Amino acid sequence: MSADLAPALEEVLRPVLGDTSVEDLQRLTGGASRTTWAFTATGDGRARKLILRTGARDDIHASMELEAAVQQRAAAAGAPVPHILAADNSPAAVGNPYLICDAIAGETIVRRIFRGLDDAGRARLLQQCAEALAAIHRADPDGVGLTTPDDLAEWRARLDEIGDTTPTFEWTFRRLADQRPDPSPMRLIHGDFRMGNLIVDDSGLASVLDWELTHIGEVYEDLAWFCIRAWRFGAPEALGAGGLGSVETFLQAYEQASGTPLDRAAFRWWLTVATLRWGVICRYQAERHLSGENPSVELAAIGRRVSETEWDLLDLLSGKGPQ
């Protein structure tokens, strides 16, 4: 495929960069819903490292053009994102909808990032994550076609599709419905802001990646998702915010960066939603294995984390867990 892809990319990039040759085209690992390629575009004696992301024609996530538009809005608000060169929802040019952006140097593998951080480095990165989210939430969400999903209803429907549940999940859904806080202002939401979707270099946060779940929602959704157990990658509960620092430190940094006070009770409600969301995802991934749709040791292992998520939900519902 790369033999056909290189000349197609040269055609796509010609209006942007002029006559360009595509070299060193390599498919990268990672990316559950979209495929990523790295390559070098060379023209006028200059080489430019670029990234190509492609999605399925029937992709249910944000379209490539929408993802590009949102990243450009976020960049204008001060968020660190790659510069977009081209994006198209049509499969005509490269075989699938695509987005092309500058490559950003740095590390994405979380355990490697953690090994390279001392206490000061973790504190700096946590502050930068709070500032990046504040910038994203300042961005203008109007006029690009973003949806406004109901997070709780969405995961209720996803669990019902599986046809299986647990008593803990059901109790959590009921408690969340009964205790839902008053809505807060709607903002541009990343949708999957977490360790693993960030590029980190020697200066800290270099870029925010993977915008396919972007939508309009409450800021608590992004803040809470960053703070569930799964995205601590084994770090202790005291480092509940992405394995970098305490949840309270993270929330205070966000308040300072955004100029917006946060309701701690509302955050805790959203943290419970985020934990339930992860539990339903784990059960859904297990079903892909158990049904024979996609037999996979990895999916089966993710399914074993359902019980871990139930423990976290029980802690949250009883008043324990991150404060």
TrEMBL record:
Highest taxon, organism lineage: Bacteria
SUPFAM superfamilies hit by this protein: Protein kinase-like (PK-like) (SSF56112)
InterPro entries registered for this protein in UniProt: ACAD10_11_N (IPR041726), AGP_Transferase (IPR051678), Aminoglycoside_PTrfase (IPR002575), Kinase-like_dom_sf (IPR011009)
Chain ranges of the Aminoglycoside phosphotransferase domain: 25-259
Keywords: Transferase
Gene3D superfamilies: 3.90.1200.10, Phosphorylase Kinase, domain 1
GO molecular function, one term: transferase activity
PANTHER family: AMINOGLYCOSIDE PHOSPHOTRANSFERASE-RELATED-RELATED, BLR2944 PROTEIN
Name of protein: Aminoglycoside phosphotransferase [Thermomonospora curvata DSM]
Taxonomic classification: Bacteria, Bacillati, Actinomycetota, Actinomycetes, Mycobacteriales
